[in-house]
Amino acid sequence: MQKFDKPLQEVTTSSLEALKAFSQADELRERGDTLAPVALYKRAIEIDPNFAMAYARVGTQYLNVGQADLARQNFQKAFELRERASEREKLYITDKYYDGTGQLEQAMQSLEMAIQTYPNDYPPRVNLSVVNQALGDFDKGLSNSLEAIRVEPDSWYGYVNAAYCYTALGRFDEAKALINTGLQKTTGALVMHGSLYYVALVQGDKAAQDREEAFIKDSPAFELQWVLANKAGLAVVHGQRKNARELYAHEGELAKQLGLTENQASVIQIPALMDLLFGDTSNKNKSVSQATAALNIANSPDVTILSAEIAALAGNEPQARHLMDDVNRRRPLDTRFQTMFIPVVEAILLLNHGEGAKAIDVLKPGEQYDKGTTDIHFVRGRAYLMNHQPDQAAQEFQAVLRLRGAYIGDPLMGLAPLYLARAYAQQNDGAKTRAAYQDFLALWKDADPDIPILKQAKAEYAKLQ
Question: In the chain, what are the domains?
Answer without folding.
Answer: 1-118 (1.25.40.10), 333-465 (1.25.40.10)
